[in-house]
Specification:
Blueprint lengths: L21 H16 L4 H8 L3 H9 L6 H10 L22 H6 L2 H9 L5 H14 L8
Helix pairs in contact: 1-3, 2-3
Length: 143
């Protein structure tokens, strides 16, 4: 009999409710990042994989785990190797969520910044970087 308490990948809170695992959220963030890089909608990806767009939404949020067979389908649709989803993971990283770049590309604002920033000259990019650092409470970028 399966015991969720003994499952190292099961996540839950004190009330026994399950929450998404950081690795599920990381996989979802990577799916979303690559999908948006390719200019695909959730509906486009869903059709390529034979699922509903709502299912893609759940994968991207980390609300539903992606089975390995589905991950292979998604990888093919996103034109990456299935192993791409596991790059950078080792024993110490397994409880970490998405990295900063994945989180950035997972937001509309982040994608806009990435699209617009290359159009700015070096002085304008420095101003944007200094503003972002200031808003985040960090020191400005050194010249």
């Amino acid at each position: 009999m399966f015991n969720q308490a003994s499952d190292p990948l099961a996540a839950g809170d004190a009330g026994g409710r399950t929450t998404s695992h950081p690795l599920d959220r990381r996989a979802g963030a990577l799916i979303r990042r690559r999908r948006t890089e390719l200019g695909l909608t959730q509906t486009d990806l869903a059709q390529l994989c034979g699922v509903t767009f709502q299912q893609i939404q759940k994968y991207e949020r980390g609300a539903n785990r992606v089975s390995y067979s589905r991950l292979v389908q998604i990888a093919r649709a996103l034109q990456v190797r299935p192993g791409w989803f596991f790059e950078g993971l080792d024993g110490e990283d397994q409880d970490e969520g998405p990295d900063a770049a994945t989180t950035l590309m997972g937001s509309r604002e982040g994608r806009t910044i990435v699209q617009v920033l290359p159009r700015l000259d070096a002085a304008q990019r420095r101003l944007v970087a200094d503003l972002a650092a200031n808003l985040a409470g960090q020191s400005p970028v050194a010249a």
